Protein backbone atom coordinates (compact mmCIF):
# COMPACT_ATOMS: atom_id res chain seq x y z
CA UNK A 1 0.00 0.00 0.00
CA UNK A 2 1.51 3.32 -1.10
CA UNK A 3 1.22 6.64 0.74
CA UNK A 4 -1.82 7.82 -1.25
CA UNK A 5 -3.79 4.64 -0.53
CA UNK A 6 -2.80 4.83 3.13
CA UNK A 7 -4.09 8.41 3.40
CA UNK A 8 -7.33 7.45 1.69
CA UNK A 9 -7.78 4.50 4.06
CA UNK A 10 -7.21 6.75 7.08
CA UNK A 11 -9.70 9.31 5.77
CA UNK A 12 -12.27 6.59 5.13
CA UNK A 13 -11.95 5.24 8.65
CA UNK A 14 -12.17 8.73 10.13
CA UNK A 15 -15.37 9.33 8.17
CA UNK A 16 -16.75 6.02 9.44
CA UNK A 17 -15.86 6.97 13.02
CA UNK A 18 -17.52 10.36 12.56
CA UNK A 19 -20.68 8.80 11.14
CA UNK A 20 -20.84 6.28 13.99
CA UNK A 21 -20.33 9.01 16.60
CA UNK A 22 -23.04 11.15 15.00
CA UNK A 23 -25.46 8.20 14.89
CA UNK A 24 -24.76 7.40 18.55
CA UNK A 25 -25.25 11.03 19.57
CA UNK A 26 -28.51 11.16 17.61
CA UNK A 27 -29.78 8.01 19.32
CA UNK A 28 -28.84 9.44 22.73
CA UNK A 29 -30.54 12.72 21.87
CA UNK A 30 -33.75 10.97 20.83
CA UNK A 31 -33.83 9.03 24.08
CA UNK A 32 -33.14 12.09 26.22
CA UNK A 33 -35.71 14.24 24.42
CA UNK A 34 -38.34 11.51 24.76
CA UNK A 35 -37.60 11.08 28.46
CA UNK A 36 -37.63 14.84 29.01
CA UNK A 37 -40.97 15.16 27.19
CA UNK A 38 -42.49 12.44 29.39
CA UNK A 39 -41.16 14.05 32.56
CA UNK A 40 -42.43 17.48 31.54
CA UNK A 41 -45.85 16.04 30.70
CA UNK A 42 -46.03 14.31 34.10
CA UNK A 43 -44.89 17.47 35.87
CA UNK A 44 -47.44 19.66 34.10
CA UNK A 45 -50.29 17.27 34.92
CA UNK A 46 -49.32 16.12 38.40
CA UNK A 47 -47.45 18.92 40.17
CA UNK A 48 -50.65 20.59 41.36
CA UNK A 49 -51.65 17.38 43.22
CA UNK A 50 -48.37 17.10 45.14
CA UNK A 51 -49.74 18.50 48.37
CA UNK A 52 -49.14 17.11 51.90
CA UNK A 53 -52.60 15.52 52.04
CA UNK A 54 -51.82 13.60 48.84
CA UNK A 55 -49.15 11.67 50.79
CA UNK A 56 -51.20 11.25 53.97
CA UNK A 57 -54.58 10.23 52.52
CA UNK A 58 -55.88 6.81 51.52
CA UNK A 59 -57.36 6.12 48.07
CA UNK A 60 -60.89 7.38 47.58
CA UNK A 61 -63.63 7.31 44.97
CA UNK A 62 -63.41 11.09 45.01
CA UNK A 63 -60.34 12.15 43.05
CA UNK A 64 -59.74 15.35 45.02
CA UNK A 65 -59.64 13.40 48.30
CA UNK A 66 -57.60 10.43 47.07
CA UNK A 67 -54.01 9.93 48.15
CA UNK A 68 -51.14 7.46 47.98
CA UNK A 69 -50.49 6.75 51.66
CA UNK A 70 -51.11 3.01 51.48
CA UNK A 71 -49.35 2.77 48.11
CA UNK A 72 -46.05 4.44 49.00
CA UNK A 73 -45.91 2.71 52.38
CA UNK A 74 -46.57 -0.62 50.64
CA UNK A 75 -43.86 0.10 48.07
CA UNK A 76 -41.33 0.87 50.81
CA UNK A 77 -42.15 -2.29 52.77
CA UNK A 78 -42.13 -4.53 49.70
CA UNK A 79 -38.77 -3.09 48.60
CA UNK A 80 -37.42 -3.66 52.13
CA UNK A 81 -38.25 -7.36 51.87
CA UNK A 82 -36.93 -7.50 48.31
CA UNK A 83 -33.58 -5.95 49.20
CA UNK A 84 -33.23 -8.06 52.36
CA UNK A 85 -33.79 -11.27 50.41
CA UNK A 86 -32.09 -10.53 47.08
CA UNK A 87 -28.96 -8.57 48.01
CA UNK A 88 -27.23 -11.00 50.43
CA UNK A 89 -28.25 -14.05 48.41
CA UNK A 90 -27.32 -12.53 45.04
CA UNK A 91 -23.97 -11.12 46.14
CA UNK A 92 -23.04 -14.36 47.92
CA UNK A 93 -23.99 -16.45 44.88
CA UNK A 94 -21.97 -14.16 42.61
CA UNK A 95 -18.90 -14.42 44.87
CA UNK A 96 -19.16 -18.19 45.01
CA UNK A 97 -19.56 -18.64 41.26
CA UNK A 98 -16.69 -16.30 40.43
CA UNK A 99 -14.18 -17.02 43.18
CA UNK A 100 -14.94 -20.49 44.59
CA UNK A 101 -16.92 -22.66 42.18
CA UNK A 102 -14.91 -25.13 40.07
CA UNK A 103 -14.96 -24.46 36.35
CA UNK A 104 -16.81 -27.48 34.96
CA UNK A 105 -19.90 -28.31 32.92
CA UNK A 106 -22.22 -28.08 35.94
CA UNK A 107 -21.25 -24.51 36.82
CA UNK A 108 -21.42 -23.57 33.13
CA UNK A 109 -25.04 -24.78 33.03
CA UNK A 110 -25.80 -22.73 36.15
CA UNK A 111 -24.18 -19.62 34.65
CA UNK A 112 -26.11 -19.95 31.39
CA UNK A 113 -29.40 -20.38 33.24
CA UNK A 114 -28.75 -17.37 35.48
CA UNK A 115 -28.03 -15.23 32.43
CA UNK A 116 -31.20 -16.46 30.72
CA UNK A 117 -33.31 -15.82 33.83
CA UNK A 118 -32.31 -12.15 33.72
CA UNK A 119 -34.35 -11.82 30.52
CA UNK A 120 -37.44 -13.82 31.51
CA UNK A 121 -40.68 -11.72 31.47
CA UNK A 122 -41.78 -10.65 34.92
CA UNK A 123 -45.22 -12.27 34.57
CA UNK A 124 -43.50 -15.68 34.59
CA UNK A 125 -42.07 -14.94 38.02
CA UNK A 126 -45.55 -13.91 39.15
CA UNK A 127 -47.04 -17.22 38.01
CA UNK A 128 -44.23 -19.15 39.69
CA UNK A 129 -44.69 -17.19 42.93
CA UNK A 130 -48.45 -17.81 42.80
CA UNK A 131 -47.88 -21.55 42.80
CA UNK A 132 -44.86 -21.61 45.14
CA UNK A 133 -45.43 -18.91 47.75
CA UNK A 134 -49.20 -18.35 47.72
CA UNK A 135 -50.45 -21.94 47.34
CA UNK A 136 -47.38 -24.10 47.99
CA UNK A 137 -46.01 -22.45 51.14
CA UNK A 138 -49.31 -20.85 52.17
CA UNK A 139 -47.90 -17.33 52.52
CA UNK A 140 -51.01 -15.80 50.96
CA UNK A 141 -51.31 -12.46 49.18
CA UNK A 142 -48.95 -10.71 51.56
CA UNK A 143 -46.06 -8.28 51.65
CA UNK A 144 -43.70 -11.21 52.25
CA UNK A 145 -44.92 -12.95 49.09
CA UNK A 146 -44.54 -9.75 47.06
CA UNK A 147 -41.03 -9.08 48.36
CA UNK A 148 -39.87 -12.64 47.69
CA UNK A 149 -41.39 -12.55 44.20
CA UNK A 150 -39.52 -9.37 43.28
CA UNK A 151 -36.39 -10.75 44.94
CA UNK A 152 -36.49 -13.73 42.56
CA UNK A 153 -37.06 -11.31 39.69
CA UNK A 154 -33.92 -9.25 40.36
CA UNK A 155 -31.74 -12.05 41.74
CA UNK A 156 -30.17 -12.89 38.33
CA UNK A 157 -29.39 -9.20 37.78
CA UNK A 158 -27.60 -8.95 41.13
CA UNK A 159 -25.66 -12.17 40.52
CA UNK A 160 -24.52 -11.13 37.04
CA UNK A 161 -23.55 -7.63 38.21
CA UNK A 162 -21.59 -9.07 41.13
CA UNK A 163 -19.70 -11.49 38.91
CA UNK A 164 -18.84 -8.83 36.35
CA UNK A 165 -17.61 -6.48 39.08
CA UNK A 166 -15.41 -9.18 40.59
CA UNK A 167 -14.12 -10.16 37.18
CA UNK A 168 -13.06 -6.56 36.50
CA UNK A 169 -10.58 -6.63 39.39
CA UNK A 170 -7.07 -7.45 38.04
CA UNK A 171 -5.69 -10.90 38.84
CA UNK A 172 -2.50 -9.25 40.07
CA UNK A 173 -4.37 -8.17 43.23
CA UNK A 174 -5.37 -11.78 43.90
CA UNK A 175 -1.83 -13.01 43.29
CA UNK A 176 -0.36 -10.32 45.56
CA UNK A 177 -2.75 -11.29 48.36
CA UNK A 178 -1.85 -14.96 48.02
CA UNK A 179 1.85 -14.08 47.94
CA UNK A 180 1.48 -12.40 51.35
CA UNK A 181 -0.11 -15.52 52.82
CA UNK A 182 -3.78 -14.51 52.70
CA UNK A 183 -6.45 -17.19 52.58
CA UNK A 184 -9.01 -17.15 49.79
CA UNK A 185 -11.65 -15.53 51.99
CA UNK A 186 -9.16 -12.90 53.22
CA UNK A 187 -8.26 -12.18 49.61
CA UNK A 188 -11.93 -11.79 48.65
CA UNK A 189 -13.12 -9.82 51.68
CA UNK A 190 -10.09 -7.55 52.18
CA UNK A 191 -8.98 -6.94 48.59
CA UNK A 192 -11.48 -7.96 45.91
CA UNK A 193 -14.76 -6.77 47.44
CA UNK A 194 -13.54 -3.23 48.30
CA UNK A 195 -12.52 -2.66 44.67
CA UNK A 196 -15.70 -4.17 43.23
CA UNK A 197 -18.23 -2.63 45.64
CA UNK A 198 -19.06 0.24 43.27
CA UNK A 199 -20.07 -2.09 40.45
CA UNK A 200 -22.00 -4.36 42.81
CA UNK A 201 -23.96 -1.41 44.20
CA UNK A 202 -24.75 -0.27 40.67
CA UNK A 203 -26.17 -3.69 39.81
CA UNK A 204 -28.20 -3.78 43.02
CA UNK A 205 -29.74 -0.38 42.35
CA UNK A 206 -30.53 -1.32 38.74
CA UNK A 207 -32.34 -4.40 40.02
CA UNK A 208 -34.24 -2.51 42.72
CA UNK A 209 -35.16 0.21 40.22
CA UNK A 210 -36.70 -2.45 38.01
CA UNK A 211 -38.50 -4.07 40.94
CA UNK A 212 -40.09 -0.88 42.26
CA UNK A 213 -41.88 -0.30 38.96
CA UNK A 214 -43.16 -3.85 38.42
CA UNK A 215 -46.91 -4.43 38.29
CA UNK A 216 -47.63 -7.71 36.50
CA UNK A 217 -46.14 -10.18 39.03
CA UNK A 218 -47.75 -8.38 41.97
CA UNK A 219 -51.19 -8.41 40.35
CA UNK A 220 -50.70 -12.11 39.63
CA UNK A 221 -50.10 -12.94 43.30
CA UNK A 222 -53.16 -10.94 44.41
CA UNK A 223 -52.07 -7.39 45.23
CA UNK A 224 -55.00 -5.13 46.12
CA UNK A 225 -56.00 -2.25 43.87
CA UNK A 226 -57.84 -0.41 46.65
CA UNK A 227 -56.65 -0.50 50.24
CA UNK A 228 -57.65 1.85 53.04
CA UNK A 229 -55.47 0.62 55.88
CA UNK A 230 -51.79 0.38 56.76
CA UNK A 231 -49.95 -2.73 57.92
CA UNK A 232 -48.47 -2.88 61.41
CA UNK A 233 -45.25 -0.92 61.79
CA UNK A 234 -42.03 -2.99 61.78
CA UNK A 235 -40.80 -1.10 64.88
CA UNK A 236 -42.55 -0.80 68.23
CA UNK A 237 -42.02 1.28 71.35
CA UNK A 238 -42.21 -1.70 73.72
CA UNK A 239 -40.07 -4.85 73.97
CA UNK A 240 -39.07 -6.68 71.78
CA UNK A 241 -39.26 -3.50 69.65
CA UNK A 242 -39.73 -5.49 66.43
CA UNK A 243 -42.91 -6.79 64.83
CA UNK A 244 -43.22 -9.17 61.91
CA UNK A 245 -47.00 -9.09 61.58
CA UNK A 246 -46.70 -6.61 58.71
CA UNK A 247 -45.18 -9.35 56.57
CA UNK A 248 -48.55 -11.15 56.38
CA UNK A 249 -50.58 -8.01 55.67
CA UNK A 250 -52.36 -7.18 52.43
CA UNK A 251 -50.73 -4.51 50.31
CA UNK A 252 -50.73 -2.29 47.28
CA UNK A 253 -47.88 -0.43 45.58
CA UNK A 254 -47.52 2.76 43.59
CA UNK A 255 -47.58 1.19 40.08
CA UNK A 256 -50.82 -0.65 40.89
CA UNK A 257 -52.37 2.50 42.34
CA UNK A 258 -51.39 4.37 39.16
CA UNK A 259 -52.90 1.60 37.02
CA UNK A 260 -56.14 1.84 39.00
CA UNK A 261 -56.35 5.60 38.49
CA UNK A 262 -55.43 5.53 34.80
CA UNK A 263 -58.20 2.99 34.11
CA UNK A 264 -60.83 5.41 35.43
CA UNK A 265 -62.60 7.72 32.94
CA UNK A 266 -62.52 10.87 35.10
CA UNK A 267 -59.80 13.34 34.14
CA UNK A 268 -59.07 14.15 37.79
CA UNK A 269 -57.85 10.60 38.39
CA UNK A 270 -55.44 10.98 35.46
CA UNK A 271 -53.87 13.90 37.32
CA UNK A 272 -53.56 11.74 40.43
CA UNK A 273 -51.80 9.07 38.36
CA UNK A 274 -49.37 11.66 36.98
CA UNK A 275 -48.59 12.87 40.50
CA UNK A 276 -48.01 9.28 41.66
CA UNK A 277 -45.70 8.79 38.68
CA UNK A 278 -43.62 11.76 39.81
CA UNK A 279 -43.37 10.26 43.29
CA UNK A 280 -42.28 6.91 41.84
CA UNK A 281 -39.61 8.61 39.72
CA UNK A 282 -38.42 10.54 42.77
CA UNK A 283 -38.11 7.31 44.77
CA UNK A 284 -36.11 5.70 41.96
CA UNK A 285 -33.81 8.71 41.65
CA UNK A 286 -33.37 8.69 45.41
CA UNK A 287 -32.17 5.08 45.33
CA UNK A 288 -29.76 5.92 42.53
CA UNK A 289 -28.46 8.95 44.45
CA UNK A 290 -27.86 6.73 47.49
CA UNK A 291 -25.94 4.25 45.32
CA UNK A 292 -23.78 7.05 43.88
CA UNK A 293 -23.02 8.35 47.37
CA UNK A 294 -22.11 4.88 48.68
CA UNK A 295 -19.97 4.18 45.62
CA UNK A 296 -18.13 7.47 46.06
CA UNK A 297 -17.60 6.72 49.77
CA UNK A 298 -16.12 3.29 49.06
CA UNK A 299 -13.83 4.63 46.34
CA UNK A 300 -12.63 7.42 48.61
CA UNK A 301 -11.88 4.88 51.32
CA UNK A 302 -9.83 2.80 48.90
CA UNK A 303 -7.75 5.83 47.89
CA UNK A 304 -6.87 6.51 51.48
UniProtKB/TrEMBL annotation:
Pfam families: BPD_transp_1 (PF00528)
Keyword DNA-binding among record annotations: no
TM stretches of this protein: 18-40, 69-97, 117-137, 143-162, 192-212, 218-235, 242-262, 274-294
Cell compartments where the protein resides: Cell membrane
Protein name per the record: Phosphate transport system permease protein PstA
CDD domains (alphabetical): TM_PBP2
InterPro entries (alphabetical): MetI-like, MetI-like_sf, Phosphate_PstA
Membrane-topology descriptor: Multi-pass membrane protein
Residues in coiled coil: none
ABC transmembrane type-1 domain residues: 72-291
Family: Belongs to the binding-protein-dependent transport system permease family. CysTW subfamily.
Keywords recorded for this protein, A-Z: Cell membrane, Membrane, Transmembrane, Transmembrane helix, Transport
Main location: membrane
Gene3D superfamilies recorded: MetI-like
